Amino acid sequence: MCPVVQADRYRAGRKCGMTITRRGFLGVAALAGAAGAAGLSGCSSALKQTSSPGSSGSGAAAKNGGTIKVGFVSPETGQLAVFTQSNGYVLGKVRDALANGLTIGGTKYAVEIIAADSQSSSARAAAVASQLVQQSQVDFLIGTATPETVIPVSAQAESSGVPCLLTICPWEQWYYTSTGTANTFKYSYMYFLGTQEETDLFATQWQAVPGKHVVGGLWPDDVDGAGFQKYITAKSRALGWQVVPSGGYTDGTTDYASIIARFKAAGVDVLHAAPIPPDFITFWRQAHQNGFTPKIASISKALLFPSAADALGSLVTNVMSPLWWSPQFPYSSSLDGMTASAFASGYPAGWTQPMGFNYAVFEIAVAALKASGNPKSPSAVAAALGRLKGQAITGRYDFTAGPVPHVSQVPELLAQWRPSGSGYGLVVINDSLLPAVPAASSLKLL
């Protein structure tokens, strides 16, 4: 097993063993108690306890309250690592912003961030979340990047009574069980977009194009695949359109000939897909080799990243993708005032959409800790999260507005990949949910 890691390891670029399990979450709460890697002592460093420009409290000297420990679980290695490739930079910025600690209710606290690698495995995410709670005794848990991570982290938070904030997972996939009933949360909160919201945005673009509207769904056998299949099938049928599902396939599939043949035989002219990046790259190359080119391709997961677009080259032109965050967002960090543009430009490998949210959850966590009045009280911090409204580098958040309890839904944009300089960039084509970032073009067919 690979030990829990922190930002210093991210910056050094060291990698642990890359393992992946099939995506399923039955029994996650039980898995969370399993012992994973060695103890976490020595895996993190407390930040300095000096004055904090953003701290709350009076001007009088504050008493020492010890250390607030924040556990951060993400897939540093494995097939989902593309969502966290900028984590070393992100955590470095957060640590710098919190280096002077926090003063809350007249008490001064140092802040320690302990980062753990889920290895792109739900079982591993459960194990390291359990370690963070049981061994490191964290005061707050953060989980990011797909249901594989956030569902088991949330399960551990609920069973242990630790405040928890989650992101980069459509909220419906976390909030509802496989049977469609709502989960009951006390300590966990989600800050991210919704599958229904994204489906409705895609449908507005599909409706604008004449044709048969036969919707082909490339949906893997996982929580994301099931979620998108549910909502896109319902929306398509409500509009009188035919749906042709791929049938659940496992991550890492290398031969999509039978799926492509099914799509061609049905006359699919609109494609929706929610695979991991390497799987879509393989599928899309094979689709072109076999003469399958729909009018529209809307890709929910795989094409969030420039590296995936560059791997496809000209084949990515006019393929549609959601846009969650970019350097053009007119928002700043609530921790240090850094603009979205400055934050993005500081990362030498090139900005990615997830980096904005992986930073914003720390902004929201700090706001909740301050608002609680007592960061060592799990119930006070959880209650503060539920009342929280504010703005982060990704935009506004409001946990009182729904669409359901414990969720602050993020408005998103739609964009298409177009040639840009020596590579490809996302051009906004629909800003209906977020006019603060105006559309720069309109839909173009493949």
What would you call the quaternary organization? Answer: single chain
CATH class of the largest domain: Alpha Beta
Structural class: alpha/beta
Helix and strand element order: HHEHEEHEHEHEHEHEHEHEHEHHHEEEEE
Rough outline: globular
Gyration radius (Cα, Å) is: 22 Å
Helix content: 25-40%
Strand order of the largest sheet: 2-3-1-4-5-6-14
Please report the total strand number as a whole number.
16
Report how far the terminal alpha carbons are from each other.
44 Å
Describe the protein in words.
The protein is an alpha/beta fold. Helix content is 33%, strand content 20%. It has 14 helices and 16 strands. The strands form 4 sheets. It has a 7-stranded mixed beta sheet with strand order 2-3-1-4-5-6-14, with helices on both faces. A 4-stranded parallel beta sheet has the order 8-7-9-10, with helices on both faces. A hairpin with a 2-residue loop joins strand 12 and strand 13 (395-398). The longest helix has 20 residues, at 353-372. The chain starts with 6 loop residues before the first helix and ends in a 16-residue tail after the last strand. Mean pLDDT is 88; it is low at 1-60.
How are the secondary structure elements laid out?
Blueprint: H1 7-12, H2 28-31, E1 63-74, H3 87-97, E2 102-104, E3 107-117, H4 122-134, E4 140-144, H5 147-160, E5 164-167, H6 171-175, E6 188-192, H7 195-207, E7 214-218, H8 223-238, E8 242-245, H9 257-266, E9 270-273, H10 277-289, E10 296-299, H11 306-312, E11 320-323, H12 340-345, H13 353-372, H14 378-387, E12 389-392, E13 395-398, E14 407-409, E15 413-420, E16 423-430
Parallel strand pairs: 1-3, 1-4, 4-5, 5-6, 6-14, 7-8, 7-9, 9-10
Antiparallel strand pairs: 2-3, 11-15, 12-13, 15-16
Helix pairs in contact: 3-13, 4-5, 7-8, 13-14
